[in-house]
Design brief:
With 131 residues, the protein is mainly alpha-helical. Helix content is 72%, strand content 3%. Residues 39-99 form the tRNA nucleotidyltransferase/poly(A) polymerase RNA and SrmB- binding domain.
């Protein structure tokens, strides 16, 4: 009950034991629930997810598609994608979307750098500073 009040996702038994039984499905299900209900993830659970994320490639393709469909449904696509990225799963599960997001992030960072340089130059000119 305290986990519900704290909005925290936690495993009932130690996370390493829980996830080793049905590793991938539990990780994806946990991320789906956390994304949909805006839950934080306990440190133990998060550490275990990071340790075991690479086993995702062993999941049956049909089960993987089902879990991904559930994750990206019901208005939870954005938080699900954020969590997938946080746990290094986005590049594995949605590589094209991950590449696009990284490209957009790089373009935005480049644009922000250019804007800050231009604004810095403008403020220097306004202040009478010659470079």
């Amino acid at each position: 009950m305290s986990d519900l009040k704290l909005l925290k996702l936690r495993t009932l038994i130690p996370a390493h034991v829980s996830f080793k039984r049905t590793v991938v499905a539990r990780i994806l299900r946990g991320l789906r629930i956390a994304a949909r209900l805006h839950l934080s993830i306990s440190e133990d659970t998060e550490r275990t997810m990071h340790d075991l994320w690479d086993s995702i490639e062993g999941l049956d393709k049909g089960r993987l598609m089902m879990e991904m469909n559930y994750m990206l449904s019901y208005g939870a696509a954005v938080p699900s994608i954020c969590l997938l990225e946080r746990f290094n799963l986005l590049n594995i599960l949605l590589p094209f979307q991950a590449a696009y997001i990284n490209q957009q992030r790089s373009a935005k960072n480049s644009m922000m750098l250019m804007v800050s340089l231009v604004l810095g130059s403008v403020s220097n000119i306004a202040a009478g500073v010659v470079l």
